[in-house]
Amino acid sequence: MAAVAYDVKNLVKTYPRQRAPAIDGVTFQIHEGEIFGLLGDNGAGKTTLVRQMVNLLRPDSGTVELFGRDVRDDPRHVAMLVGYMPQKSAALNRLTVGEAIYFTAHLRGLSRQAARGERDALVELWRLGDIVDKSSEQLSGGQRRLMQLAVAMAGDPPVLVLDEPTNDLDPVNRKHVWDVLRDRNTRRGTTVILITHDAVEAEKAIQRVGIVQRGRFTALGTPGELKSRVALQVHVDLSFTPGSPPRLPAGITPWKSAPDSWSLRVDPDAVPALMAALDFADITDIRLSSATLEDLYLHYVS
Ligand SMILES: Nc1ncnc2c1ncn2[C@@H]1O[C@H](COP(=O)(O)OP(=O)(O)OP(=O)(O)O)[C@@H](O)[C@H]1O
Fold it and tell me: Which GO terms describe its molecular function (predicted)?
């Protein structure tokens, strides 16, 4: 069993002049070496939760321990061990991209020479060569996000806490983010905690998920565990000879249709009847897939 990286107990936070708590008695653990995803609606409390985990926000009650030590006891403990990427930040505005990466690596304990090497490696990894000498306030939203990822990773902290790391990014860079995170996790054992609204892409990387609603977890577990707790429908995508749509058993209707293809959602126990009813002479392609993390999310927040 992997060591516990984060141990969060009974965390409560109500902002001043707010009636409802933003975080309402949250208890959970994150194990060393896992990729943990926080999903939830806008305003559910995700950012409030992670800001308390990185000691940027004080809880009203409850505790957050990082590798056995309360994060409030020693701010340096968190700064050295956690690379935090906030959703929005003006903190690095005056520095160039290269300086922001270099100084962060140096502050996390690398010698000047090693920090320069780290800067060069991260500039290459995140393809920041063209903007390395620009000050971060001159960057586009996506470029800024890539710089923030490089800064969070500078000095190779064992834990990354990333608040919506793929926001503002184009599809190529979004894929690159998921690839890099998976690679860091596999090769270096980096623990990754991330907030995302991108359940479809996150599914490829996330090993355990917490779904937050009104300051509480409504679901916590591996995607497989959560799916097995709810009877989610099977997806069936089928294509057919133009002009010859298949006859479907009563009660099954396509929820998405194009001239010669349909998508169906079917209860797992209705799949055999569907297969028996289809005339495969006119079916040109058929794919069955299980429910996705997005389905799971929609199930738990609705
Ligand atoms: N500084 C603040 N003062 C007062 N209320 C706040 C403050 N920051 C957040 N809130 C409130 O706390 C609740 C949780 O906000 P939080 O930013 O944690 O949600 P979130 O899940 O991260 O949302 P999103 O997905 O939109 O980023 C919301 O109702 C929000 O309005």
Answer: ATP binding; ATP hydrolysis activity
